[in-house]
Amino acid sequence: MTIGEQPEDWTEPGAHLVKPGVHRVPLPLPSKDLHAVNAYVIESPEGPVVIDSGWAMPETEKSLAHALSTLGHHLADVACVLVTHAHWDHYSQALALRGAFGSRVRLGRGERPCVEAFDPAKGLYPRQIELLRACGAPALAGRVATLELSSHERDMPWQFPDSWLDDGERVRLGAVELDVLATPGHTRGHVVLRDAAAGLLFAGDHVLPHITPSLGLEVVPSAKPLRSYLDSLRLLQGMPDALLLPAHGPVTPSVHTRVEELLVHHEERLEAAAREVRSGARTAYEVAAALPWTRRARRLDDLDVMGQMLAVLETDAHLDVLADQGVLAAADQDGVRTYAPS
């Protein structure tokens, strides 16, 4: 499919044509590592529909308002926001738009436990602190426990959506029909939206062109996030290929190509984790400390606290899969999960 010309820098502000009636709108993020999130604007008879509306802050609202104005719309015209998952950089601006203009908000039903359980008084990552201790990383758990809400997070809007998106549902937006597909892994209730007729996949954070999504970073993480994620990738692998419209990164021509790369990446990480256990590592923390991280192959100690937390928990998810496969044997020793070759 021929798509509209995209800027060389995918974060460049504006409304970038994907196809007639569909535009990509990069919105700023308050993060040193991730600079923008893509919202997608779809024209509908009721008014523009936005997929993933960004982080609730004045800069986001200003960027979205400007992009909409180039399409002949105002923020108040937004009829509905469809949200792939409940992370702040996807969900919170949707709630702000609802509060200011009455736009409807829809979110995957699987996100409900996390929306219900969120309580800033319990800290940013209460469940992750428990998991880190079980991974043999008590010192890191203690550092994570000291993390506090930033100024961008403290007053974040957080409520239920107007309605839930269900797996298998078809959302009709005039001539555009979007199939809702549950793709748990990045979060337990992540969904993607597929325009089968046009060959488009609004992928949220499930399939990203340049980075591998974190797994289970949420208030109520699922027990086996990597197993869910791999199953969700294979779900897309079994469908006709489509144009990849990611939440972070440029539009790319093939979902299948990137899915294959992600499956290979995780197979390589599974093999590497198993190799470290055979070499004597016993906990997720020990395995993570032995593995390289990021495209720069950094050591665990070179990452910041957030990066270390994500690395250890991702390693634990890989070890869980290896135990499920019978490659490793898992045991509990005084509240710490240990692994050994089967």
TrEMBL record:
Matches recorded under InterPro entries: Metallo-B-lactamas, RibonucZ/Hydroxyglut_hydro, Sec-metab_biosynth-thioest, WH-like_DNA-bd_sf
TM helices/strands, residue ranges: none
Record key words, sorted: Hydrolase
Sample GO molecular function, one term: hydroxyacylglutathione hydrolase activity
Enzyme class: hydrolase
SMART domains in the record: Lactamase_B
Occurrences of domain Metallo-beta-lactamase (ranges): 36-248
The keyword Hydrolase is assigned to this record: yes
Enzyme Commission code: 3.1.2.6
Protein name: Hydroxyacylglutathione hydrolase
Organism in which the protein naturally occurs: Nonomuraea coxensis DSM 45129
